Amino acid sequence: MNNKLYTQFVGSCSLVLFAFLGYVVRFYPGWIQPFDQFITNGIRSLYPTWTPFFLWITKFANPSTMVILFLALLFVLLYGKRYAEAAWFSLGIIGIAGIFNPLIKLLFMRERPTLEHLVTEHSYSFPSGHSTGSMVLYGTLIFLIALFIQNRYLKLGLQIILGSCILLIGISRVYLGVHFPSDIIGGFSLGLGWLLLSYPYYQKQRFIWRFKNKQL
Known about the structure:
By secondary structure, this protein is mainly α. The chain contains 8 helices and no strands. The protein is globular, with a radius of gyration of 18 Å.
């Protein structure tokens, strides 16, 4: 119960942060400009040395990559009769990253930075779709990886790699000039809020399905 309350508390805080950032971005964008400028200057100071790396890492959250990984992982889960996991995973990718994030961009209508764009983007800026998508996809894997790997050190190592991938994808979007840092934080907080608030319900559904299967 304590773990559930802690998870839901952190998830709620993530969504509050997202709502706060959205409010500021929509009505008082000048408030957050110094923060965005400071972080952007630090990341862009790596230009152009790190361009090949960030062009590569950002592809791990491109829509085409997300679709391929989603379908592949969904097949693995369904093949292994992990129906609760498949449902939770699908709701996050399709519902949050695929539908909700693009729609909510229309509410905030934030234009992208005026920096040189190293990749082509056409939608609005807040929240970052790459950040939301990577948090939902790779964040779900961080939770589910324990189902497939029992070795403690290997599991921890893979979770660290996945967490680092999420962070680097966010940084890449600022480096490539298509997002403000607050867009990235907004996308991360939206995705993390979904994961942490829905995780206890996924666990409950998983228990129910496993119990029914044992009875059968």
